[in-house]
Write a structure and sequence with these properties.
This protein is an all-alpha fold and 329 residues long. It has 14 helices and no strands.
Length: 329
């Protein structure tokens, strides 16, 4: 517990430090008046588009989760999954990366079905599929302007993420191979790895289901990146949309790293650094990121309202875990 608190404090320091640097750069160069003037001239129609695109990303994520659950024999109502996902989004607002969203969904499915290993294994599979989708999105954007910002390094990083996620997914689907590899670790780590491998072993996810989940992951990541294209439009920035999409994708990647609280500071810092290459002012770059963040909170706000209301929440009798070989986690 103490270690987790220390890590949270460190991440908060990173967030506040980066955010402080961004605000200092913005106010020092252009002043408060410039910021107020830009906000007063926002295009609300573009903000509505940004909200619609964000909801598209969210529902693609829900469908991906449902696809992987169904592939493992857990048929849960779409309305229940939507509610759980939105509440998870609300909780995830206060945690690094997607930790809150993932932990809540795994707990919620376990509570509903009584199948803790299934709930955890689906989230693990989803994260691996999500990394594959993110890697594919990054690779697709490289010839469209990605190398302008990152050079050849971007190709190596995107390929490394894709290969790592694909390798992890292969081990996930072949638990015997994963168990064999885990035994090569030092004894303490090997015992722990074997327990988790057994608990998180996939239950026969068909290739077709994995393919659908990957496509949904790709759609979700591209839509999330496109939110920042729309917020740039709301500010009236005349920047190539494909370049903005590359910047949006980089922001998504950066905020997924568990180095800050909710991506605060990291999001704005990446925007200022990358959009500066496109001759966008620090004020406008900060607002592109900030507006994208605010639009992204709409699903979380809905989830918070659902959590507080607590209406229509029913939990049927849990179904016992079908496999006796999986230890509790």
């Amino acid at each position: 517990m103490r270690r987790s608190r220390v890590l949270w404090v460190l991440k908060a320091v990173v967030s506040l430090g980066l955010l402080g640097w961004v605000l200092h750069e913005t106010l020092a160069r252009e002043g408060v008046g410039s910021l107020a003037a830009r906000l007063s001239s926002l295009s609300w129609s573009f903000l509505a588009v940004a909200a619609a695109v964000q909801l598209t990303a969210v529902f693609a994520g829900i469908l991906r989760w449902r696809t992987l659950l169904s592939a493992q024999g857990a048929e849960l109502p779409a309305t229940w999954l939507t509610r759980s996902y939105l509440i998870g989004r609300f909780i995830g607002t206060f945690t690094p990366s997607t930790a809150g969203l993932d932990a809540y969904r795994a707990w919620d499915v376990a509570q509903r079905t009584g199948r803790r290993a299934l709930a955890a294994s689906t989230v693990v599979a989803e994260k691996l599929v999500g990394l594959v989708g993110l890697s594919l999105a990054t690779l697709a954007l490289l010839p469209l302007g990605g190398t302008r910002f990152f050079g050849s390094t971007a190709i190596a990083l995107a390929v490394a993420v894709g290969l790592g996620a694909g390798g992890g997914l292969a081990l996930f689907l072949r638990p015997r191979l994963a168990l064999s590899l885990s035994r090569a670790l030092p004894r303490g780590l090997a015992d722990r790895a074997e327990r988790w491998t057994a608990a998180l072993a996939g239950r026969g996810i068909a290739p077709g289901a994995l393919a659908r989940a990957t496509v949904l992951s790709l759609l979700s990541h591209v839509a999330t990146a496109a939110v920042f294209v729309a917020t740039a439009g709301a500010l009236g920035l005349r920047v190539d949309p494909l370049s903005l999409l590359v910047v949006g994708n980089a922001i998504v990647v950066a905020t997924l790293l568990p180095v800050s609280v909710g991506g605060i500071g990291v999001r704005e810092g990446v925007a200022v650094a990358m959009l500066g290459v496109l001759s966008v002012s620090a004020t406008d770059a900060t607002l592109v990121a900030l507006l994208g963040y605010l639009v992204g909170q709409v699903p979380g706000i809905v989830g918070g309202a659902l959590l507080l209301a607590g209406s229509g929440r029913t939990s049927p009798k849990a179904v016992p875990e079908p496999s006796a070989s999986a230890p509790s986690v």
